[in-house]
Amino acid sequence: MNIRTNILLRVYAAFGFIVVFAIFVVTRMGYVQIVQGEKYKAMADSLSTKYAEVEAARGNIYSADGSLLATSVPEYEIRMDLLAGGIQDDQVFYEKVDSLAYNLSKRFGDKSPRDYSRLLRDARAEKQRYFLIKRKATYQDLKAMKTFPIFNMGRYKGGLIAVQKNKRIFPFKDLAARTIGYYNENSSVSVGLEGAYGDYINGETGKRLVQRIAGGVWMPVNEDAEIAPKDGADIISTIDINIQDLAQNALKKQLTKSEADFGTVVVMEVETGRVKAIANYTRVDGEYKETFNYAIAQSAEPGSTFKLASYMIAIDDKKFGLTDKIDTEGGKYKLFRHTIKDSHDGGYGVITMKEAFEVSSNVAIVKQIYNHYKDNPSRFTDRLHDLRLGEKMGLQIPGEGSPLIKTPKSKSWSGLTLPQMAYGYELKMTPIEILSLYNAVANGGKMISPLFVQEIRRLGNTVEQFEPRVINQKVCSDRTLEMLKEMLLGVVEEGTGKIIQNPLYKIAGKTGTAQVADGSRGYKGKRKYQASFCGYFPAEKPKYSMIVVVQNPTKGSYYAAQVAGPVFREVADVIYASDLQMYADVKEPKVIGNTRMPSVKSGHKKASQQLYKEFGIKSYFASANEMDVDTNQGVAYKEIRSNSGVVPDVTGMGLRDAIYVLGNVGLNPIVKGAGEVYQQSIPVGAKVMKGTKITIELR
Prior knowledge:
single chain; 699 residues; alpha+beta; EC 2.4.1.129; seven-stranded mixed β-sheet; penicillin binding; membrane; Peptidoglycan glycosyltransferase; Penicillin-binding protein 2a (Domain 2); glycosyltransferase
């Protein structure tokens, strides 16, 4: 074979290979295009477009009176498509970009107009279609931006893109913060009402079509969601913001004073079990913050507040009565090499069981429980379990601590367990469980589970209502109940709680000062104490029950009466003073003969009328110098009106009202004397400049 033939064969072979390869490629392309076209088209779409979730607005949480405790407000991520239809022409964009930059700088103040202009020009040069302008913009920001140059051309022409997100805010800041709680969708952590009712509050997410653009960024295709999200339902809690604020302030003040580790307060309605306030504070770096809900989660030895249960069982079993005598043996009682002591040196001698409860004698209750139940301890522990004290209450808030009520079958049971349980040791209960027991006494023997949520609403319509749930219909006999009430009242009237009694109303309750174990060292380590007071008020007709627990007070006294008692008294006093329903019915007022009408300062007509209406006062023989009388033999009122720049008439007003009215119209009052305003230096109706001084004389 010559060289020419050899070369031709190689050329033909190469050409044939190329032809065959080309035929294969064309055939394959046809197969992919025709046979597998739909498959790859769908795959391409899935890589460039997808449906993203649109967050729903979470439901609100309200207090019992309708005040907003938690809500969601819209927050926007503002972006810009710099290749939008209306600004594809460079001339249009560059004519208006500086004006847009100026408005953005003026609105947000985070960059100069020059910086904004440079960023927008650079993004334009890079052909960015999803350029970030501002995170966390408010609705007012968005509303204003829609009027800015370029953006005012509309969504598709001006390129303004607003991605809505929802921000959770708490109008009352840390008020009931741990009870309101939070919900973290990225983890299994759920706290408080936010977590417990997340299924209701969260709502249902919507869907929006987004497209993948350069840089791997997903940009919304349409401004509106394809599937609109469904907003969450609203939660109506039982919290009273006034009582909550009061409880938090009183607790924090006492914790600061005693330099304690932590503390909790719970206020509950006796009849319904509705929790009106629940405060928890922990010392963190010298400050007190709400970091843990001790009221429902801290299961610990309650100490002397548990004596109520011991007395309840023993009296119900007719082991002793209130007048039965007991020898406290000098305040010390030795059992199995262990000595049980009273806090009072030398003991109390021979006293009645009622007196023993009032002075909180450990020796008295230990001797009674041990002597009557040592041969059959199961009888005592079974009764405790019958009271449902060894079970969780199934609260509406997650994180309830597990109670511990031992039985003779428990591995840690010993000869000392029964006497220790008698006065609140070798068992565990949460503060709210102790409160529920005391509330049962106040409630005529019916133990009910504490209620935190009373209703769930969606768009104003009730979705679900929650009624009080009875745990134990009758904790003891009526006979026993009356004795317990008498003892609890006696603690405040004559016993350890005497320091908190109020002459205006009666408080019933029990102090508890318990030694707290020091970690692994137990009770042999550094001594720590827990001070608590649990009770209800008014004692004659209980409306509220309350528990106060202060852990490890390190400054001043550690006794419950001096540490927990003042918090109880402060909260109870203000609640009683603020709740007219607690007062005895006011007799119908009578105005007869020459009875003189009370002096009324000038003020707003409606306020004065309401005041007279509430007190039932009507003028029959009012002096013309004191009060005018209208044709209906009622009080004639004079409405106080004020206009800016015009001097109002403040004669007859008190100092506070006069300063308020004058200040509202821009005047600067100078005060002389005390009492009511009888003279003012500038005549009524005169026009004055803002800041003008006016002298008012009072007598």
